[in-house]
Specification:
0% strand; Rab-GAP TBC domain-containing protein; Rab-GAP_TBC_sf
């Protein structure tokens, strides 16, 4: 794992790019060689920038991050609350269960099991992806996004 000083230096390197196009050019692979931006520890910052932000102006990022995290938390509560509370749900559903609700719950469980299999296979050589907290986070994110799209 990188030191805090190395991580801070990488984030400072990000400031040299004036717009998204410059950053995209910097991370583009040339002839199979790793780009300077990716090899200098900016890979995670680049992914976050391309996926979440409209600019490389980090002043605007906290508001966008807060909004994005809030949206994820809402999705997580909506799609994962049933799966997280299986015992309570089955007590409630015993008396008043309709087949459509149970069918939806079983479909969600199957999706979660399939995604769990993929998470278990994700980068087995990297200890970070073997950590239970990391696997749980990946599973929750992927289930939430997949459920939203189904």
């Amino acid at each position: 794992m990188r030191s805090l000083q190395d991580a801070s230096a990488s984030w400072q390197d990000l400031k040299q790019y004036k717009n998204l196009k410059d950053l995209q050019e910097a991370v583009r692979l040339d002839g199979g060689h790793s780009s300077p931006a990716a090899s200098s520890g900016l890979r995670s910052a680049c992914w976050k920038t391309f996926l979440l932000f409209d600019s490389v102006d980090t002043v605007t990022w906290p508001k966008t991050l807060a909004s994005s995290r809030s949206a994820y938390n809402s999705l997580r509560m909506h799609f994962l609350s049933q799966l997280d509370n299986q015992d309570e749900l089955s007590d409630l559903m015993d008396d008043e269960a309709d087949s459509a609700t149970w069918t939806a719950i079983r479909k969600d469980e199957e999706l979660r099991a399939e995604i769990q299999q993929d998470v278990d296979r994700c980068m087995p050589e990297n200890l970070y992806f073997r950590q239970p907290d990391t696997q749980r986070t990946l599973l929750d994110i992927l289930v939430s996004v997949s459920s939203k799209r189904v």
